Amino acid sequence: MTVVSVEQQVSSRVLGPLELEVDGTPVQLKGVQVRRLVAGLLLAGDCPMADEELTALVWPAGRPANAQKGLRALVWRLRTALGTAGERLERTPSGYRLRVPANDTDHHRFAALASDGLSKQTPSNQDPAGAMQHLETALGLWRGEPWQDLADSAVVVGARARLLELHELALEEVEAARLAAGNPQVAVRSLTHLVADSPYRERRWELLARAWLEVGQPERARAELRRYRVLLADQLGLDPGPTLAALERRLAVQQSGQPAWRWR
Any idea which fold 10-101 has? Predict the structure, then answer.
């Protein structure tokens, strides 16, 4: 009789507090160093992480006298916590690797969904409904800043910054898709909060002005663009970029009595 071995599903979440599960059951990660070990291995993805790199992540303030022995002890504790899925934590000639498929990690799923959603917003591929679906699903995975257990280092800061920027873009472009789909009232409410959260992201002011235009309030659109122009001048000594400058000119023409225009 042939025995078929079914490998257990291991999944992870790093967009917010670190979570690790085996077949849907949370793994108890006790201790700061164990959590850093897991986070570092997940950061490396499918590539093994060398002992030296791991110890730097586990003990960012300075490695203990016997870091290698300490690392082996942490690996043993993690394997024990994983139980029958402990074989997913592998020792290779290049270092340790925690085998978690990309589809079972929230940061990879988020990046893939967000990228797919953004691709449906390009001039050659206008699919507002598809963009909204992908971007809203991606944003639903976001629980907070990525890699919270890891201290700043060149590798960690870079990985965190890429995800944070993709999150900001997803927040903006889901509202652009909402506008294109003909739902400006919801977009106005969301974008009002978004410009308050990140007042120097110009795309948000552009979308907010266009949303006010779509609900038939061009005066509010002009007021928002003036507010952004004053903010830039006072805080940074800058003028709005060419996209907003062009939008301001079009609104000025409309205000002077020329025929109204729609941006879509």
Answer: Arc Repressor Mutant, subunit A (1.10.10)
